Structures are given as C-alpha cells and as structure tokens.
Amino acid sequence: MNKGDLISDAAKRANLPASTVEAAVNGLLESIGEAVKRGDKATLTGWISFEKVQRSARTARNPQTGETVNVPARAAVKVKAGAKLKAMV
Q: CATH assignment of 3-88?
C-alpha cells in the first residue's frame, strides 16, 4: 500500500473527500518529520514510534572487492512497531 492507496482507503472508511484526508495525512507526516528532526520521539501509541538516533562512525567492507571503507557518523531514524500493530500482523 502506497500513500495514495492509504489516502483512498482512509477516505472511504471515514466517508470524507480524498482531498481532506490527503491534507490530514500530509500534515501528520510533516509533524512527525519535524519532531524527529528536532530529536523528539514521535509516537502513535500502540501503533508505531519514530526516534532519531545517532549512528557512530565505523569501518565496513565492500563485499565485491573486499576493500575496507570508512563510514562516517550520521543521524538515522529508528522505527518501532507498537503492540496493536504487532497483534494485527
């Protein structure tokens, strides 16, 4: 399911115009993105949580050539499924 499919399905379930649901979904995603960018944890309780984590620098190996490569430190997003989502799957 992609974003368009999600919007269409949610619009049908909520009996709302797709444009209204699209605006709500876009607003939700922007809010989550901005919160994580600030370093806050964004949680939809029971469903999913997003958290900014710092990955330390490390050395890795190119599997094709065997050459070692330095991978710089970087920020990443940790995504964790909640209990309700886990129960559904």
A: 4.10.520.10
